[in-house]
Structure formats: structure tokens, C-alpha cells
Design a protein that fits this description.
Layout (H helix, E strand, L loop, with lengths): L4 H10 L4 H4 L9 E4 L2 E3 L5 E9 L7 E8 L5 E3 L14 H9 L3 E6 L16 H15 L4 E10 L1 H9 L7 E7 L5 H6 L7 H15 L9 H6 E4 L9 H9 L5 H4 L9 E2 L4 E2 L9 H6 L3 E7 L5 H11 L4 E5 L22 H12 L9 E5 L4 E5 L11 E2 L5 E2 L39
Parallel strand pairs: 4-6, 4-7, 7-8, 8-12, 12-13, 13-14
Antiparallel strand pairs: 1-3, 2-3, 3-6, 5-9, 10-11, 14-15, 16-17
Helix pairs in contact: 3-13
Amino acid sequence: MRRLLRAAAVLCALLGLGVAAVAWLSPTPVPARVQRPFVAMPDGVRLAVDVVLPSPAPAAKLPTVLIQTRYWRSLELRVPTPPDTVPQGPREPIVERLVQAGLAVVVADVRGTGASEGTWTRPWSPEEVADSRALLDWIVAQPWSNGSVATTGTSYEGTTALLTATTGHPALKAVLAREIEWDLVDELLAPGGVRNLSFVSAWSRSVAALDRGRPAEFFPALARAFVLGVSPTDDDPSGVALAQRQRTRTVTDVEALVRSVRAPSDPIGLDQLPGSAVGPAGFATALGQSRAAISIWGSWWDGATADAVLRAEQAIPRAQLVIGPWTHEGDTSASPLGDRDAATVALDDVVAFLSTSLSGQDAGPPSRRWYVAGAGRWAQADVFPKPQAIGLYLDSSGALLETPPQAFEARLDVDFGASTGTHTRWTTGLLSDVRYAPRP
């Protein structure tokens, strides 16, 4: 999302608002051939997609990376993106890297969102998962496609990427999913049975705004000022039909949908599916049987995405798994342990995994790689180390003991200064940094 500031910097420079604004400029836009067609699903619903191809056109047909998003596939800006370049969008840095690596990229608005038709009823509905198979069918039928496809994404898009593997489509060669929830209830909606009201409320308002054609509140403030909306399709360049679609579409109130959810058995959505069945946890068997190369990345300080990686290990033991110290977007470290600049997501590693798998090469044996918090280094093994639980007891003097004291007053003092409250690891999914008060 920070890349949106490129357009703001251009306009500020034109208006003479100072060199500080020009400093926000990102590198030169990456050349690309861009098409924005609709793709019809088996039930007649049409999904809006951006097809982004390397420029100049290579002689050979191309492997493709599919990204399915709930946050607008690309953006219409007050300062237009230069023609024949990678479109600006929430995930354009990875799109640029993939195109530079010689890969085709298809970014789709999932049904009922962005410029797509249909109704979005809940996260990762059966219709949405089925759409991923139809998109793969469409991609392999294109004249520029060599028939090999990978999927990738971060957050919601990471889950859509992973669930594409449940379709069993023969063209799918690889999946790299970052910053996802494996168990939606325990890792996001109600961790430990405590409802995560702040996140759910903010996310619900934001996606509702997006579906009505307005920038989300978790977009950076300056970005909201320069974003007009989602990119229209090629057959509706002025966006007239798009605006009508956004005015009349059914917008689901996510907060109301999950208001009573506290346990995995509690139902979500109009289909009343148990929360434990929404998202990857409900597809564990199919994911374990997928022939695609799978890699899942999370962070110690991004919600419970590290837990998702650890749970994925049980269902997909052959997967490549990574746990780092970064924020949700992966572009900054979230570590509070004196090593904040130690590591961010290496997009080159993302591209290498996808490119290797798409070329037909083996991505290698299963591996586990994790950032050692506070040590400023990475470790790697065939399996994650098993944690050793130690029971500690607080005595009346404030000391911690390994055995229960004879008698003490049961009292809990909570240090609310440990974080700012609104900038915890749970809010990184709303593009908010993790902040900690200085510790003695």
C-alpha cells in the first residue's frame, strides 16, 4: 500500500508542494502489457481480472501466477498510472517482481467485490473456491499461457491462493500463501474464546466500503485521498456500469455475521457452516493430498499467523514453512526485542519458489525456517522444534517459582502499557504498525 504514495508524490511535485513529497516516489514503473477483461464463471457471474504480461512480449508462452483478491485488483488514481506499466494496487510490488521474472500475472477481484459481478456472502464461500478452478481453466486456454499456473497472496489473498489447491486442478503447480489464518475462529475471530471485536469491526466496515466503491479506512490517509476506486474493465472504461453495480450489489455485514462466534463449532454465514470449516482448517485433508508445491509463511508478531504455520505443518508435512518477524505486509520488522531491522519478507525468495515450481523443477525437500526472536538470526531444520512447557507460579513477593507456593493471594496486575492498545500484533492486518512502550 505504501506504493500508492507514488501517485501522491507526482501530484505534489506538480503542485510545487516540496521536495519531501517527491522523496516518496517509488522506482521507475515496470513495463507491462495490461488487459482488463471479464471472465465468465460456470454460473454466469463475471469476474474482473487484470492480465499483466511482460513487455516486450517473449517468444515463448508463459507460466502464470494467479492472485485472487478481496481488496481491489488494481486502483484508479487521481494521477493515472503511466500507460503500459504494471498497474498500481495493494500488492503491486510482488506483481512487478513476477513480471520482471518473465511470468504472466492474473489478478482477479473475487465475486461480489471490486469490479466483479455476483455476491460476496462470506469469506471463502464454496462459490468463491469453485471460481478459482474456473479461473485456472480460463488461464490455460489463453494464447499466452504455457499451461502451468501458481497462486500466491497475502492475508485474505493468501487463503484464496491456498484453497485453490483443494480443487485438484492439474495446471496448478505451486502455492505460496503468506500471513493467513489456518483456524479462522481461534486465530482471528475469538482467540482463546475472547472475541477480537476491534479487528472484526474495522475489517467489516472497510470491506463494506470497498464493495460500495469507496477506499477502505485501513488504506493510509494520503492514499485514500488519491484513490478514486477500483480499476474498471476494458469494456467499461468510464466506469458507468461499475458504479451501477456497486450501488446495487448486496453487501454483507461481516461483523453481524460473526457477532456470536466464540468457538469453532459456532456457525458462520448464511450456510451456517461451523467456523472450524471456514478457511484452510476445513480443507485440511484436501490440502494434504494436493500435488502442488506448497509454502506457507507467517510471523511471530502478526496476529496468530505463526500458529497457522505450525498447524499447517500437521496437515501438509511436505510443505515449505517459514516464520519471520515482520508485520502483515512484510515490508517492516515488528520485533520488539531490539532487532526491529533484522528481517523483512524477501520477495526474491517468493519469486524463486514460484518460478522454480512453474518450471517443473522440484522445490526441494520439506523445510522449516524460522527467525530466532531476539537473536537476530535465522534457523532451519526438517521440523519445527517442539516447545517445552514450564509451569511457573507467582508468589507474594513477585518471584516466579516452578512449584506452587504454600499460600498466596490470587491477584493479577495487568500492565496496559505493554503496548499502545491500538497498535498490537492483531492490528497489523489493518496496515497498522506494532508499537511497544520502552521496557526496562
